[in-house]
Specification:
Blueprint (H helix, E strand, L loop, with lengths): L11 H11 L3 E3 L6 E3 L1 H20 L3 E2 L5 E3 H4 L3 H7 L4 E6 L2 E9 L4 H11 L8 E10 L13 E11 L2 H21 L5 E5 L11 E8 L5 E11 L1 H5 L3 E3 L5 E3 L1 E8 L1 H10 L16 E6 L3 H23 L4 E3 L7 H10 L4 E6 H6 L1 E6 L5 E5 L3 H26 L1 E3 L3 H9 L4 E6 L3 H11 L2 E6 L5 E2 L9 E7 L3
Helix pairs in contact: 2-6, 9-12
Amino acid sequence: MARNIAPREKDYSQWYLDVIKAAELADYAPVRGCMVIRPDGYALWESIQHFFDEAFKDSGHVNAYFPLLIPISFLEKEADHVEGFAPECAVVTHAGGEELEEALIVRPTSETVIGHMYSKWVQSWRDLPILINQWCNVMRWEKRSRLFLRTSEFLWQEGHTAHASREEAVEETLRMLEIYRDIMENVLALPVLAGEKSEGERFPGADNTYTCEAMMTDRKALQAGTSHFLGQNFAKAFEINFQNREGELESAWTTSWGVSTRLIGAIVMTHSDDDGLVIPPRVAPVKAVILPISPDQEMVEGKLLPRAAEIAEKLNAVLGKRSVKIDKNFHMRPGDRFFASLQKGIPLRLELGEKEFGKEVLHAVRRDTGERFDIPWDEVATRVPEVLEDIQKNLYEKALAFREKNTIHVTGYEEFSKIFEGSGGFVEAFFAGGREEEKKIKEETGATVRCFPLGREETGTCFYTGKKGARLAVFAKSY
């Protein structure tokens, strides 16, 4: 166990912050509630961003950029939206040494300003659909912040689309949810539950919100990404109207969807351990590190470094540019160099000492299991990718097994309450309550409806109200 990291089982919150600090992912900014994303953290975000951006473009979306500042009157046009976001908004009232005629909101999300622009761009059904995404920062003033999970300013993508029919917009909403699920599970190794949000957890102004919910290793849920079917609410508020094929005027149907730097927090809390960060290989900016090791400087410069460079070049050709780096921190002791790569979560460490050089092998150490083995030089191009894929698979299966072990089905409220008095987890129960029932359950247990899972259409008796025909819901305490 690392001395600079609190034990996870004793102090989960401190463990999480210690892992981030040791891995040099982020630091606190001078403005309360904000963070500085350090180079290693930003490289991880760029990697996450790459996979989502490619998937968006493959599905027909294009990137654009909209203003950071939004007129306050825009926010007020959609009643539920303003009620949901007003408490979190940062407001600009002065600029250029003068008081503004109209206050401006630092964007908490961009439905309003994008709705305004779409109303200018859409006249006919031929102008639809509009499929736009933007990568940007947003601000939601947080009273209790935590690095990556809840900060006043964070980075994200927000997709905003407009369609000529309800069916097409619903299809888009669910298509984006599936893209999120696929990348979260197959790239980030995060098992997620895809489902519909309850009335009380719905995005302000949406007809329906769909979510990907992941279980962290403290058994709390983390909302990893959401996709919203906005119906015609924002289209009517911002007059996104078009002439349909029959020549009649009607309002467009819109969606929005987003994931954020919160996903870095999800990776930390799902995969890391008491030694530090663990990153799944597919998303890791650096997938393997080669460490030339010798007290003999001539040996290092004459033989080990040239051989390491050849191997790195061969592996980078297979794994992608800059996927493998050479550790040249020769001022550090070998043990400290090992530990530094371990705490940064690099999936595979490849040691090249005098003994390994003589045997023409690399001594490999897996970050996920600590397993050690030799890889012959002439096999690195095939063996290293195989090992990385095995690490990826192992991390996903381990996280999935943890979620399944900590998912419990209940039929009564007493049993439900006892679970959340104890270790918690995901609790499945049939539920037919509304906002008031959700509020009471949260007040009494701290748990909320995380989602009604998609693909599970069974119904039963509500554990809380006793009503028949209730939908299956998953409850959990959450971040």
